[in-house]
Amino acid sequence: MCNSLIPAAYRSLGADATAGSGRSARQDYPPAPEPLPVPVIDNHTHLDFPDGDSPVAIAAALDAAQAVGVQGAVQVGCDLESSRFTVQAVDLDSRLLGAVALHPNDAPDYARRGELEEALAEIEQLAAHPRIRAIGETGLDFFRTEGEGLAHQRYSFRRHIDIAKRLDLTLQIHDRDAHDDVVQVLREEGAPERVVFHCFSGDEALARICNAAGWNMSFAGT
Ligand SMILES: [Zn+2]
Question: What domain range is 176 assigned to?
Answer without folding.
Answer: 75-217
